[in-house]
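Budget justification aside, the reviewers requested a transparent look at the raw inputs and outputs of the sequence design task funded under Objective 1. We therefore reproduce one unedited record. The lines immediately below are the structure tokens for a 370-residue chain.
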């Protein structure tokens, strides 16, 4: 009888052990009967495995609080019982104590880095909470310890697929022999390559959906490739637009410079002129309101963002007017000349004002010589 008890204990002591290695139900009719004999046995002192098995019965009925109580009894009887610790962690998770569960499992894997069941349970928790990257990391550790377990490999392949890691998923399916009958599918999977365009399109999807953090992450990944300069330049441009909307102007200007340096975007859609115009309008508002400092700042931003000569010329011109009103005639002269040099035709109807700026600037300089 003792031999049978020990055998049943080893079979039933861990929920994870049974699920991972066999995929069978918790216990068949014969083992349930033997378990009942153990629980109801006369004159027999309960050991840790008896409590674990009782906890597993509760757990299978989704009664997690009494299950947890049984696992804790098992630990009181044998504080080093690894099956009790693992099952206790899963019960804690089911009772919405995720951090406690993960802390317990991390302690187990630190003390015993070859404990596949603890890694597996951590992976299950991350999988159930849709933290696919973390789940995959844990399942990969289990696969290192148990390299020939098809059930585990199937779960890992599905995780790869759910996480859009198609190459890894395909390799896992190949190892399991699941794609031999469909070679064209295999070829399509293996032909898939990550590149700048893939992440640029992904970033645009997230951007349109308003998921800015994910969009930024995708655009940044797009810039890490080298072969498609145009897509990389567009990714830098998109990042600059996000920075502009977030009022991170200095970073936006850097992004614009990187975009143009990588690939000269000549398509009308990819211009910062519309942002430059917006800053000119904001500058005009402050200018007419008498706040020359803010006006000057916005005109300077417009200058740095302008792509076309007419917009750049207008921004320099209006910055010159701001200097003029501040009685900084030397800088007014400089900006006026810059505006005329960039696009003299655009400012032909404003020549009198430009002349006035120049005359006043030279007047001050002449008086300084006296």
């Amino acid at each position: 009888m003792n031999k049978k008890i020990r055998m049943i204990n080893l079979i039933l002591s861990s929920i994870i052990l049974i699920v991972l290695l066999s995929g069978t139900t918790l216990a068949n009719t014969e083992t349930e009967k033997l378990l009942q004999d153990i629980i109801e046995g006369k004159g027999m002192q309960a050991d840790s495995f008896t409590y674990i098995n009782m906890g597993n019965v509760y757990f299978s009925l989704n009664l997690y609080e009494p299950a947890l109580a049984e696992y804790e009894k098992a630990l009181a009887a044998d504080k080093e019982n690894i099956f009790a610790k693992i099952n206790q962690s899963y019960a804690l998770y089911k009772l919405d104590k995720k951090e406690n569960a993960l802390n317990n499992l991390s302690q187990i894997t630190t003390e015993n880095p070859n404990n596949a069941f603890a890694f597996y349970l951590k992976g299950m928790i991350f999988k159930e909470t849709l933290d696919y990257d973390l789940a995959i990391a844990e399942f990969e550790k289990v696969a290192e310890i148990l390299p020939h377990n098809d059930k585990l490999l199937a779960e890992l392949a599905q995780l790869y697929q759910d996480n859009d890691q198609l190459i890894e998923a395909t390799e896992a399916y190949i190892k399991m022999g699941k794609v031999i009958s469909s070679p064209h599918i295999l070829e399509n999977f293996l032909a898939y390559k990550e590149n700048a365009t893939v992440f640029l399109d992904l970033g645009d999807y997230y951007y349109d959906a308003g998921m800015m953090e994910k969009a930024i992450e995708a655009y940044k990944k797009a810039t890490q490739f080298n072969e498609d300069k145009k897509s990389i330049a567009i990714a830098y441009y998109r990042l600059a637009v996000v920075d502009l909307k977030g009022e991170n102007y200095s970073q936006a200007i850097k992004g614009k410079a990187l975009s143009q340096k990588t690939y000269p975007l000549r398509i009308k859609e990819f211009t910062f002129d519309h942002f430059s115009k917006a800053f000119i309008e904001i500058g005009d508002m402050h200018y007419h309101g008498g706040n020359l400092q803010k006006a000057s700042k916005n005109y300077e931003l417009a200058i740095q963002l302008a792509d076309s000569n007419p917009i750049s010329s207008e921004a320099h011109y209006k910055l010159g007017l701001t200097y003029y009103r501040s009685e900084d005639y030397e800088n007014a002269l400089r900006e006026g000349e810059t505006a005329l040099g960039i696009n003299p035709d655009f400012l032909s109807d404003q020549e009198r004002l430009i002349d006035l700026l120049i005359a006043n600037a030279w007047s001050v300089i002449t008086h300084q010589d006296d």
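The longest helix spans residues 351-369. The chain has 21 helices and no strands. Computational costs for records of this kind are itemized in the attached budget.
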